[in-house]
Amino acid sequence: MTAVPAITTRSGLAPVWFLELELTQRCQMRCPSLCYADAGPTKGHGTMTRADWEHLIDTAPAAGITTIQFIGGEATLHPDFLRLAEHALGVGLRVQVYSNLIRVTAPLWELYSHPNVTLATSYYSDMPDEHDKITGRAGSHAQTRANIVAALERAIPLKVAVVDLGEEAQRAQEARAEMITLGLPRVGPVDRVRAVGRATGHLRKEPDIGELCGQCGDGRAAVSWDGDVRMCVLSRFLPSPGNVRTTPLGDLLDGAAWHELLARVPRRRGSDCKPSSDSNDCKPAETTCEGNALVLPVPAPRLPTEGNR
C-alpha cells in the first residue's frame, strides 16, 4: 500500500472546536440576492433525522467540539430544534443560535436566556422598505428589529451582522450605526456578500476559493442537513471530506481529505491581515466569520495544536 503523504496544513490552524449544524433549508425569508444556502419557505429539512443529529451532538465533545451553532435556513423552524438545543446543553456544549429573529416564541426566549446560549442575527438597512426588499419578506425589518431590542432588554448575548450587497444606495453603514445606538456592546464592521449560493446571480460571479474569508476549517467546521461535513457553510461548492452518518466526526476531522481541503484555502495572516479594510476576515478584527455575517465570539478552548481529540 502506498503511504499517504503527511498533511502539513495543521501548522498554525486551530483544531476544530466550533461546529455549525445546518438543520434545515426552510426559512420564512427568500433573500433573493444573498442567501448562501438557497433557503426559502418551501424548502425541506434535509435527510438528517433527529436521531442522526442527537448522535452527532453526543459524539461532538470527543471530537474536540465545545460550541455548536444551529443555523439554516432558519434553524428554529426545524421541528426538533428545541429538543436538539436542549440536548446539546445537556451534554455540556455551548450553544449559539443564528436566527433571522422573525418570530421568537416564549420557549425560544427561555432557551436564549440560558447562560450557555448566545444569539446572532443579520441586519441589512435602517430603512424598513430596503431591508424588506433584501429579505424578500414584507415586515421582516420590523420583526427582526423588535426582537433585537427585546434580546437587549433581556440581556441576552447578541451579535448583529450588517451585510452589504454592494449596491450603491444600500444603507449598510447607517444600519451599523443604528445597532450601535441601540446599545449593542459589540458591533463588527460591515461585511460584504460573497458569491456563494443565490448571491452568485446577484454578483454575476461563480464561487471560488477567493470568496472564502480565509478562516474556513480554522477551529471550525460545518455539517449540512444531509450530513456532509464542510469547512464552513460557505464552502459547500468544494467537495465534502465525508458524511457523519457513515463516518464519525472525529475521524473525518483527522482524515487526509479534510486536511487536503484546508490546504486549498488561502490564509490571511500577519501582514496580510488588515482589520481596518478587510471586513471581518481576520482575527485582529476579533470576529468569527459565519457565512455572510458575524457571530458572537466565544473563547476557544486550550486544545492541543495537533489533531482533534
TrEMBL record:
Residues 213-273 form the 4Fe4S-binding SPASM domain. Gene3D superfamilies: Aldolase class I (3.20.20.70). The keyword S-adenosyl-L-methionine applies. CDD domains: Radical_SAM (cd01335). InterPro entries: 4Fe4S-binding_SPASM_dom, Aldolase_TIM, Radical_SAM_PqqE_MftC-like, rSAM, rSAM_sf. Pfam families: Radical_SAM, SPASM. Keywords: Iron, Iron-sulfur, Metal-binding, S-adenosyl-L-methionine. Residues 22-165 form the Radical SAM core domain. This is Radical SAM protein. It comes from Nonomuraea monospora.
